[in-house]
Amino acid sequence: MTISAIQQDMRQRLDRIIPEIEIRYKAELIHEILCLKKEKDVAILGHNYMEPALFHYVPDYKGDSLELSRIASRIDAAAIIFCGVKFMAETAKILSPEKTVLLPAEVAGCSLAESITAEDVKKLKGKFPGVPVVTYVNTYAEVKAESDYCCTSGNAAAVMNAIDSEQVIFLPDEFLAGNIAKETGKEIITLSREDLQNGFSDSVTEVIGWQGRCEVHEKFTVQDIESARSQFPGVVVLTHPECPPDVVDASDFSASTSAMVKYVEDSQAPHFLLLTECSMGDNIMAANPDKEMLRMCSVRCPHMNQITLEDTVASLRNDQYVIEVPEDVRVRAAAAVQRMLEIG
Length: 344
What we know:
The chain contains 16 helices and twelve strands. The protein has helices at about 5-15, 20-40, 50-55, 65-70, 85-95, 120-125, 140-145, 155-160, 175-185, 195-200, 220-230, 245-250, 255-265, 280-285, 310-320, 325-344; strands at about 40-45, 60-65, 80-85, 100, 135, 150, 170, 190, 205-210, 235-240, 255, 270-275. Helix 1 (about 5-15) packs across helix 2 (about 20-40), helix 2 (about 20-40) runs parallel beside helix 15 and helix 8 (about 155-160) crosses helix 9 (about 175-185).
């Protein structure tokens, strides 16, 4: 695909989203990426939260955490570049240890992943011996290695229901845990690092959660939804289950990013408001020009935004930045991730 062909396609697809001067510049970067990845036998995975020019033209595979985890386990390319944040690239390395896995940004963290450590999980297991640990995939490899199961927002309820245990430790997102506990009809207690140090009421509860949050999703409020509905009657509000439970309750639909994409594609509603990382609304609008997405979302993930076209070019040119996971950690983490994939 030539630079001019890329520019022409971008004008048709992204004209409502990207100004002309950016289209000319970004088309050159996209062209170089397409040439380099073919030359070097590199597969590129792109999360739904990538900015539109990158998302629509660069990845060989696109989707949410669960889809990309499955894909990473069966890719044939010699190397993988993960256009997402660090824990996602680690998951690809956990499932494909023989492959070189690269992250375009030197530091692309996650507030949720950083809310819990392997030591925290060990202490929780000490407080609740024998209770299985379910860890959200939005965590680092060391935390996964201390877990029995991983899950994503798309299969968290299925994982919870598949475990034959009266109690489950669910980490680290307190809002996702609360929403899943409600969906599955279970009682929940949410603990913090201070609770482990100072003690807490150990009354019997079915779900033991953790006081971790996504810095993007915790910002959305019920007032955001009420404001949208007052201005745009008939708007359909979609939320990610990392949002607070009252926000999820006030929305029309709550599910994983891929499920939200499919919902919009299948719906005939006049307007949509997505309460999740806001670049995803741009990506849906570009793929579905007949759908009207309200541009009221202004919350961007500072970590996802570190993945740029420029850095993706540099990653391909210079084989940077290599993701490494110690083998003993990888093997234990892989067991938890594989249990997730088996449940589906």
